[in-house]
Design goal:
alpha/beta, Rossmann fold, 6-stranded parallel beta sheet, about 50% helix, about 10% strand
Length: about 240
């Protein structure tokens, strides 16, 4: 009887050991993906001054974020716009590609982004709107296939920039990044970092299979006029 009990305990211990090992592996894989993605993208993340020294950039891609009900950009989006506009005004890029969510009439990230840029005297010809930038992956895929971008600077906050640059380069773009972090986002930091860790794992898989985005459509070359994107969803 005692021997039978010992055998059961040993089996249970082996089961728990296997489960613990599987749990450790499950935690290690996302952690490893995050470290790999950061290390891969880090050499391509530049200061604005370093980005200005790059030759023949097609544009700066400003990635969308929340806009308020009145159309004004959130703090995070405003900072992305400020840095993107500075790159344009300093001659680092000839065009701005504003990519965000305009999937419904009631919510228009790119319209708010364009209105902000126009207030800074950016010519309409040099402002392109990607109305179907529903995700970072979609924005970069469409930058390549819809807007015929080959070489660009991506502008967003640093925590997000590693994933954006990684995706861009895995899609064959000659991509660099400029981080837009002039202020603290204390209330959003934990949420953003938790969400970003999971998003990097998803991006890692998507860059293997390279699915098409939700929308594609006719080509609107970034070398032309941004007025061609004024009619809404480019798909």
């Amino acid at each position: 009887m005692a021997k039978r009990i010992r055998t059961r305990k040993q089996k249970l211990l082996r089961v728990f050991a296997v489960l613990a090992l599987l749990g450790m592996l499950a935690a290690a894989i996302p952690f490893g993906i995050n470290l790999y993605m950061i290390a891969y993208a880090k050499p391509y993340i530049l200061t604005p001054a370093e980005a200005a020294e790059l030759d023949t950039l097609d544009c700066a891609l400003v990635l969308g974020a929340k806009v308020h009900a009145n159309g004004n950009p959130s703090h995070m989006l405003e900072d992305r716009l400020i840095f993107g506009i500075d790159l344009y005004q300093n001659g680092a890029v000839p065009k701005l590609l504003l990519s965000g969510d305009h999937g419904t009439k009631g919510y228009n990230e790119v319209g708010g982004m364009k209105a902000y840029a126009e207030k800074k005297d950016i010519p309409e010809d040099d402002l392109f709107m990607d109305h179907a930038g529903f995700s970072t992956y979609d924005s970069l895929y469409r930058a390549r296939d819809v807007f015929a971008v080959k070489r660009l600077v991506v502008v967003t906050q640093e925590y997000h920039l590693y994933r954006a640059v990684y995706i861009a380069r895995k899609l064959g773009l000659d991509a660099y990044g400029v981080a837009s972090d002039p202020r603290e986002y204390a209330n959003e930091w934990f949420y953003n970092m938790t969400r970003e860790s999971l998003a990097r794992c998803k991006a890692f898989a998507m860059c293997i299979y390279k699915p098409a985005p939700i929308y594609l459509g006719e080509v609107i070359p970034i070398q032309g006029s941004g007025k061609a994107t004024n009619d809404g969803l480019s798909a």
